[in-house]
Write a structure and sequence with these properties.
The protein is of the alpha+beta class and 423 residues long. The chain contains 13 helices and 15 strands. The protein is globular and about 65 Å long.
């Protein structure tokens, strides 16, 4: 089936569709069969076929074999994000033979499927229709073995440029695994890191405040400046669509519209990550729920909220620090725990806020936590908790991890400096 055009009676605009609703619902038996055959024939630990509904749309992993659970299907990758998003945006294949050694840990969050399926090696191939990239084939292992590169190239040879009704791009790799920086040897042990650059709590508090102010400024600029300009551009494109234009011109306009929509989604996600407007406008819990929606799309996890607080707004410093602590805890659970769900609970009593973030993942050694990403997650939340006079308790086992925060509701700005002097 080629790229077709579907007429939407609601607005009279023709929209480009890469696949039928049946294909996008995971009901194409030919796609599922080829995924399962690829998984079985080459001994992969995980194989998935991701599709985009239209040009510029996010990629979703729809067909799979060897998955740990259904979490991968909930990952939504806009062009340029994650393995699938990078492949569909660049139109080039990717290959990594040892993810832990070849990818800078600071970039791990850019590859959510790696966390969802605990992958260690992968090959991702763009899939096209009529010359346009519409999907991606991902084949991966959960271990590192010397023969894996040969297996990937054997698959490529056997595909011979075709996967069902899709064309396969298997040349001009964007990343190949031979020449790389071994990032596993560049990470500090954590025992003496930063020993020569210690900052006092009061100085750290000032830095954090300055960072939040700058985050707020950039977030507002993205939302009120760049995003609004792009929205204005979409209105111009819709006016153009309403005119009598050729089929080719209409397709180009729709493609431009799709790309702008994808950029707006990225700007929104970036703005929320920097400083959600909901934190300033609506308060702590609405802001966390807004951020949770981004995490759910990025990492395929389900985040639930229970409980409530006796009032909607608190001191700005308290809201900011509690938000950042909970944000980091939820993010770490989504990236590293392997849990399918994260539960967040709030309550307050006797002048204290109680927040709990729990997952049912694989847990970790609290005394010697593995260094992943920037390696500052636990240290960061402990430092933030101390700055607001809060207690932080972390329990972790093979049954999951629970982080419990108890913070004073009556926090004032000067309390931070009092806390700093008594440290």
């Amino acid at each position: 089936m080629g790229i077709g055009f579907i007429f939407c009676e609601e607005d009279g605009i023709v929209g480009a569709s890469n696949f039928s609703e049946t294909d996008l619902a995971g009901e194409n038996l030919a796609y599922q069969q080829v995924v399962e055959e690829t998984y079985a024939t080459y001994g992969f630990d995980f194989v998935s076929l991701g599709l985009t509904a239209f040009i510029g749309a996010p990629l979703k992993w729809i067909y799979g074999a060897g998955a740990a659970d259904e979490r991968y299907k909930r990952i939504v990758l806009p062009p340029g994000r994650g393995i699938g998003g990078i492949v569909i945006k660049s139109g080039k294949p990717m290959m990594f033979l040892d993810i832990d050694r070849q990818i800078d840990p600071r970039e791990y969050s850019s590859y959510p499927i790696v966390f969802a399926e605990d992958l260690r090696s992968f090959c991702a191939l763009p899939l096209t229709k009529q010359g346009r990239v519409v999907g991606a084939l991902l084949c991966a292992f959960r271990s590192v073995q010397p023969q894996q590169k040969e297996v990937y190239y054997r698959l490529i040879d056997c595909l011979a440029g075709k996967l069902c009704d899709l064309d396969v791009i298997s040349s001009d790799f964007m990343y190949v695994a031979d020449d790389f920086v071994d990032f596993s040897k560049t990470q500090g042990t954590g025992t003496d890191a930063g020993a020569d650059t210690f900052l006092s709590p009061s100085a750290l508090s000032s830095i954090i405040t300055a960072q939040e102010d700058e985050r707020r400024r950039i977030s507002r600029e993205l939302h009120d400046g760049i995003a609004q300009e792009l929205v204005s551009t979409t209105f111009l494109l819709k006016r153009l669509q309403a005119r009598r234009i050729s089929k080719d011109m209409r397709r180009l306009v729709l493609e431009a519209q799709g790309k702008i929509d994808a950029i707006l989604d990225e700007i929104h996600n970036l703005s929320v990550e920097l400083r959600p407007s909901a934190l300033d406008d609506l308060g702590l819990i609405p802001a966390l729920k807004s951020q949770a929606l981004v995490f759910e799309k990025s990492y395929g996890i389900q985040i639930t909220f229970t409980g409530k607080l006796s009032r909607e707004r608190f001191d700005r410093t308290l809201e900011t620090q509690v938000y950042r602590i909970c944000q980091e805890a939820i993010l770490n659970a989504g990236k590293y725990s392997g849990s399918d769900t994260v539960a967040v609970a709030f309550e307050d009593s006797d002048g204290w806020i109680h927040a709990t973030i729990a997952d049912k993942g694989k847990g970790f050694d609290i005394q010697n936590p593995p260094i992943k990403g920037s390696g500052c997650g636990l240290i960061g939340i402990q430092e933030r908790a101390h700055l607001i006079g809060a207690s932080l308790k972390i329990d972790s086992s093979i049954n999951g991890t629970t982080i419990m925060l108890v913070a004073p509701m009556g926090l004032r700005e000067e309390d931070i400096h009092d806390s700093s002097r008594t440290r």
